[in-house]
Design goal:
The protein is mostly helical and about 60 residues long. It is globular and about 30 Å long. About 25% of the residues are buried.
């Protein structure tokens, strides 16, 4: 599984806000398609998994 990576940058990015995240964060929170729908920059740290699920259902 790999997170979405922009053509000019090799770091994974949040699909919601575009912030860069670590490879470890992407391995934990990316969905089966590699999309990261929430990160510490656009959601509360305690609720990243919940926000990610909610945004996935809205897409």
């Amino acid at each position: 599984m790999s997170a979405v990576v922009s053509p000019t940058n090799t770091m994974p990015e949040c699909n919601h806000c575009g912030a860069h995240v670590s490879d470890q964060f992407a391995r934990v929170f990316a969905d089966e398609y590699g999309h990261i729908r929430a990160c510490p920059n656009c959601s509360a740290n305690a609720g990243i998994a919940e926000v990610s699920k909610e945004r996935a259902h809205q897409a």
